[in-house]
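Saturday, quiet lab. Running sequence design on the structure tokens for the scaffold JK sent over.
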């Protein structure tokens, strides 16, 4: 099983089995990083410009592993392990989110802060993996994955504590949506 830089398990054997579409991929199949942020890696941007900014994975026989700048970070609204949905409290800055981004692989960084480093083929076998891959996990599943042999693809149900926290937030949310007349709010009799 893959491990974090500190040695805790990430819950998968191959992060790419759970990776999604590249964050830099546009709807027309172009590489946004090369087109809009060429200064981050000028050589890569020149190469993509010669290929009409087509995504590296769009080339025949290639996939996202072949791109030195591939990144798949979560924007998930539910835990990929147990299915717990996020309920955010808009006006409570102290409320900890129910979901957290869980790294399956960490993007390597060169000395100058640019992505890359590690192995050149992007397969994560070098000293530093070269691609950042994240999924959404609830706090409870996140702890289980890092502190035990739990896997992100286990058939799991949300913890009782997680369900209670989510329902407590939904109750607060419904209370805020409830209608109350001005007379009731002011306490007039």
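Result came back. Writing it out in full:
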């Amino acid at each position: 099983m893959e491990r974090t830089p500190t040695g805790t398990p990430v819950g998968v054997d191959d992060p790419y089995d759970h990776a999604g579409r590249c964050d830099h991929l546009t709807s027309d199949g172009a590489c946004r990083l090369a087109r809009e942020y060429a200064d981050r890696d000028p050589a890569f941007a020149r190469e993509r410009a010669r290929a009409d900014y087509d995504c590296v994975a769009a080339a025949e026989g290639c996939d996202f592993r072949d791109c030195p700048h591939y990144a798949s970070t979560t924007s998930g609204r539910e835990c990929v392990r147990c299915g717990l949905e996020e309920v955010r409290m808009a006006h409570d800055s102290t409320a900890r989110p129910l979901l957290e981004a869980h790294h399956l692989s960490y993007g390597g960084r060169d000395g100058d802060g640019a992505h890359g480093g590690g192995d050149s083929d992007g397969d994560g076998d070098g000293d530093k993996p070269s691609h950042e891959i994240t999924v959404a996990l609830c706090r409870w599943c996140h702890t289980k994955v890092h502190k035990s042999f739990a896997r992100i693809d286990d058939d799991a149900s949300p913890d009782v504590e997680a369900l209670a926290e989510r329902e407590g937030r939904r109750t607060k949310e419904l209370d805020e949506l409830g209608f109350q007349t001005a007379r009731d709010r002011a306490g007039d009799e």
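Notes for JK: Residues 40 and 114 are 6 Å apart (CA to CA). The radius of gyration is 22 Å. Ask whether to fix the surface positions before the next round.
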